[in-house]
C-alpha cells in the first residue's frame, strides 16, 4: 500500500493549471494568427498587385484607365478596352441571368411540387460546380458555332430596331461580347437563384398566407409581398453574381476573341481584364507585364467593392430576421 | 369586375409558365454542357491518357498533368485545411461576438468570391518573382507556388464551413466540458472539433471540389510542364492548365485529349460536390 500525500497532488494541480493557462494562450494566439491570414490574403492581393503594377501606374497615372491604345509593340498600354469589355459582358450576363434566376427561385419556392424542389435545385446548383474551363470549352466548340448560326437572324431582326439596332449588327463570327455575356449568364445563374431561393424561404408564412387569404394570386404574393420583403437580399444576390461575372476568366477567354477594338456592336470580338491577363501574361515582359498586373489590381478593387455591397445588402435582411 | 379577375388570372398564368420555362432553360444548359462533355470525352477516353505524358502531344496522354494536379491539389489542401480549420475555430469559438471576428467573417465571405486570377497574380508577385530573383531564374514557376494559389481558393471555403459547423455544436457540450475543468484548447480540440468532425471534413472536400477545377490561378504560378515531375519546385503540369493549352491549340487531335481531360475533371468535381451535398443535407447549413 502506498500512501498518497496531499501535498504533491496540490502542487501537481497548480502546475497543471498554470500549464493549461499557458497552452490556452498559445492556442488562442495560433488561432488568431490563422484568422488574420484571411485578412492578410485580401490585403496582400491588393497591395501586391498594386506593387506589381507600379511601373505603368507611375508612368501613365490616370491616363492608363482612359486610354484605349493597347499596343505591346510600341509599349503603350491603355486599359479602356478591357475595362469596357469586362463591364459590357458582365452587364449582359446580369440582364439575362437575373430574370431567369428570379423565375427559377419563384418556381422552386412557390410552384414546384415538393418532391421536385430538392432534385431540381440541386441540378441548378450543379451548374455552379462545373469548372469554368469546361464552360470555356463548351463555349468555344459548341456555343460559338451555335451563335454564328443565329447571328445573321439577329442582324435581320434586332439589328433593324432603332436605337439598340447598332448593338446587333456585325459579321456572324460567333465570337464576341454577346456570346461571352451569355456564357457568363449561365455561370452566374445558380449563384443568383440560390440566394433568391434562400431568402424567399425566409419570408414569414403569415405574411404570404394573409395575402392569399385576401385573394391574391401566386404572382401577386411573390411580386407584392415576397419581393419587397427580401429586396435588399435579392439585390445582394444580384451583386454577388455581378462580382462573379466581373472576375471570371476561363469561361470568357476562349469566346471573347481577344480584340482591343472598342466597337458599338455586341457581335464583335472584344477583350476583358481577366482574359487579357490570361492570354498575354506569360509572353509579357517589363512594362507590358506591369500593365497586366495593374489590370489585376483594378479588377480586384472593382470586384471587392461590388462584393462588399453584396454582402452588406445580404446582411440587412439577416439583421431584420434577428440573426 | 370580371375583366380585372381575368387579367389577374392571366398575368398569374403567364408568370407561372415563364418561371417554369426559366427553370427548364437552366436545366437545358446543364444537360447541354454535361452531354457535350460526356460525348466528346468518352469518345476520346483511352488508356494512353493515363500512361503517356503530354510531351508526345497528340500521340500522348495526360499522365503528367494528372499527377501534377493530384500533387498540387493535395499540397494545397495540406496548406489550407489546417489554417482554414483553425481560423474557422477562432471565428466560432473565440471571436464570435467581437468586432474583429465579425469583420474577418465578413471579409472571408468576400474572399470566397474574389476573382481567382487575381489570387494567381498575388502568388506570382509574392512567391514566383522573389524566388526567381533569389535563384537568378533557375527556379521560377513551381508546383509549390501553384499549390499556394490553390490553397487561397480553398481557404475561405474551409473557414466558413468550420465556423458554421462549430456554431451548430450545442452549447451544453461546452458547458459540460468546462464544468469538468478542462482547459479551453482541450475543449476545442477534443470535444468540439470531434463533435463537428464530419462537417469540417465536408468543408475540406468542398474546398477540394472548388480548387480542383481552377485554371486561372495556375497559369502564372505552376505554369505547366510537358514532362513528368514530382518535384514541388519544378514547373508542374495540371489538368485544367493542360486542357486550357490544348483548347487554344488549332490541332483537333489535341482538342479530343482536352475533352477527355475535361470529362475526368468534371466527373471528379461533380462527384465531390454531390457527395458533400449528401453529407451536408443531414445538417442544416447554407453554402452558396
UniProtKB/TrEMBL annotation, chain A:
Keywords, alphabetical: Cell inner membrane, Cell membrane, Membrane, Phosphate transport, Transmembrane, Transmembrane helix, Transport
InterPro entries: MetI-like, MetI-like_sf, Phosphate_PstC, Phosphate_Transport_Permease
Domain ABC transmembrane type-1 as annotated: residue spans: 83-310
Transmembrane segments: 25-51, 79-108, 120-148, 168-192, 233-256, 291-314
UniProt membrane topology term: Multi-pass membrane protein
Compartments in which it is found: Cell inner membrane; Cell membrane
Superkingdom of origin organism: Bacteria
Similarity field: Belongs to the binding-protein-dependent transport system permease family. CysTW subfamily.
Role summary: Part of the binding-protein-dependent transport system for phosphate; probably responsible for the translocation of the substrate across the membrane.
NCBIfam families: phosphate_pstC
Protein name listed in UniProt: Phosphate transport system permease protein
Native organism: Dyella lipolytica
UniProtKB/TrEMBL annotation, chain B:
Localization in the cell: Cell inner membrane; Cell membrane
Keyword Transmembrane annotated: yes
Signal peptide location: none
ABC transmembrane type-1 domain location: 66-276
InterPro entries: MetI-like, MetI-like_sf, Phosphate_PstA, Phosphate_transprt_permease
Membrane-spanning intervals of the chain: 12-35, 74-94, 106-127, 139-159, 191-212, 256-275
UniProt topology in membrane: Multi-pass membrane protein
Keyword Magnesium among UniProt keywords: no
Keywords: Cell membrane, Membrane, Phosphate transport, Transmembrane, Transmembrane helix, Transport
Subcellular location, principal: membrane
Pfam families, A to Z: BPD_transp_1
Family in the record: Belongs to the binding-protein-dependent transport system permease family. CysTW subfamily.
Entries under PANTHER family matching the protein: PHOSPHATE TRANSPORT SYSTEM PERMEASE PROTEIN PSTA
Protein name, entry field: Phosphate transport system permease protein PstA
Amino acid at each position: 500500500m502506498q500512501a498518497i500525500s496531499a501535498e504533491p497532488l496540490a502542487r501537481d494541480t497548480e502546475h497543471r493549471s498554470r500549464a493549461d493557462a499557458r497552452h490556452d494562450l498559445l492556442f488562442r494566439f495560433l488561432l488568431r494568427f490563422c484568422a488574420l491570414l484571411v485578412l492578410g490574403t485580401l490585403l496582400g492581393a491588393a497591395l501586391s498587385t498594386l506593387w506589381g503594377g507600379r511601373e505603368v501606374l507611375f508612368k501613365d497615372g490616370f491616363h492608363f484607365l482612359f486610354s484605349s491604345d493597347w499596343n505591346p509593340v510600341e509599349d503603350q498600354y491603355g486599359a479602356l478596352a478591357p475595362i469596357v469589355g469586362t463591364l459590357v459582358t458582365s452587364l449582359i450576363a446580369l440582364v439575362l441571368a437575373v430574370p431567369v434566376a428570379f423565375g427559377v427561385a419563384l418556381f422552386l419556392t412557390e410552384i414546384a411540387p415538393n418532391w421536385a424542389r430538392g432534385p431540381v435545385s440541386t441540378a441548378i446548383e450543379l451548374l455552379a460546380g462545373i469548372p469554368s474551363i469546361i464552360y470555356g470549352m463548351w463555349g468555344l466548340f459548341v456555343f460559338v458555332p451555335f451563335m454564328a448560326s443565329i447571328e445573321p437572324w439577329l442582324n435581320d431582326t434586332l439589328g433593324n430596331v432603332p436605337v439598340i439596332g447598332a448593338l446587333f449588327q456585325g459579321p456572324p463570327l460567333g465570337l464576341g461580347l454577346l456570346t461571352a455575356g451569355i456564357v457568363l449568364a449561365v455561370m452566374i445563374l445558380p449563384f443568383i437563384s440560390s440566394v433568391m431561393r434562400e431568402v424567399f424561404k425566409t419570408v414569414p408564412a403569415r405574411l404570404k398566407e394573409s395575402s392569399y387569404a385576401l385573394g391574391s394570386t401566386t404572382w401577386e404574393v411573390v411580386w407584392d409581398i415576397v419581393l419587397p420583403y427580401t429586396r435588399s437580399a435579392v439585390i445582394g444576390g444580384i451583386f454577388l453574381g455581378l462580382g462573379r461575372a466581373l472576375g471570371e476568366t476561363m469561361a470568357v477567354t476562349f469566346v471573347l476573341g481577344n480584340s482591343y477594338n472598342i466597337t458599338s456592336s455586341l457581335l464583335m470580338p472584344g477583350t476583358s481584364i481577366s482574359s487579357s491577363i490570361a492570354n498575354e501574361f506569360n509572353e509579357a515582359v517589363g512594362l507590358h507585364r506591369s500593365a497586366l498586373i495593374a489590370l489585376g489590381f483594378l479588377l480586384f478593387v472593382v470586384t471587392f467593392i461590388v462584393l462588399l455591397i453584396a454582402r452588406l445588402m445580404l446582411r440587412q435582411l439577416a439583421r431584420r430576421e434577428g440573426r | 369586375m370580371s375583366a380585372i379577375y381575368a387579367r389577374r388570372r392571366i398575368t398569374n398564368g403567364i408568370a407561372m409558365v415563364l418561371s417554369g420555362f426559366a427553370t427548364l432553360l437552366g436545366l437545358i444548359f446543364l444537360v447541354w454542357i454535361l452531354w457535350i462533355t460526356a460525348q466528346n470525352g468518352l469518345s476520346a477516353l483511352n488508356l494512353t491518357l493515363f500512361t503517356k505524358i503530354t510531351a508526345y502531344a497528340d500521340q500522348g496522354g495526360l499522365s503528367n498533368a494528372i499527377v501534377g494536379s493530384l500533387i498540387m491539389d493535395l499540397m494545397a489542401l495540406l496548406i489550407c485545411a489546417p489554417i482554414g480549420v483553425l481560423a474557422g475555430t477562432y471565428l466560432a469559438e473565440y471571436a464570435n461576438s467581437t468586432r474583429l471576428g465579425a469583420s474577418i467573417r465578413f471579409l472571408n465571405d468576400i474572399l470566397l468570391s474574389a476573382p481567382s486570377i487575381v489570387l494567381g497574380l498575388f502568388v506570382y508577385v509574392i512567391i514566383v518573382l522573389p524566388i526567381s530573383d533569389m535563384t537568378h531564374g533557375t527556379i521560377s514557376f513551381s508546383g509549390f507556388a501553384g499549390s499556394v494559389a490553390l490553397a487561397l481558393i480553398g481557404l475561405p471555403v474551409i473557414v466558413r464551413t468550420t465556423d458554421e459547423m462549430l456554431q451548430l455544436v450545442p452549447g451544453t457540450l461546452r458547458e459540460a466540458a468546462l464544468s469538468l475543468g478542462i482547459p479551453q484548447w482541450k475543449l476545442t480540440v477534443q470535444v468540439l472539433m470531434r463533435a463537428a468532425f464530419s462537417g469540417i471534413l465536408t468543408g475540406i472536400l468542398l474546398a477540394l471540389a472548388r480548387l480542383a477545377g481552377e485554371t486561372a490561378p495556375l497559369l502564372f504560378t505552376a505554369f505547366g510542364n510537358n514532362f513528368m515531375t514530382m518535384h514541388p519546385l519544378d514547373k508542374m503540369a495540371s489538368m485544367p492548365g493542360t486542357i486550357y493549352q490544348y483548347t487554344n491549340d488549332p490541332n483537333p487531335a489535341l482538342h479530343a485529349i482536352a475533352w477527355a481531360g475535361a470529362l475526368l475533371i468534371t466527373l471528379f468535381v461533380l462527384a465531390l460536390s454531390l457527395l458533400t451535398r449528401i453529407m451536408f443535407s443531414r445538417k442544416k447549413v447554407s453554402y452558396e
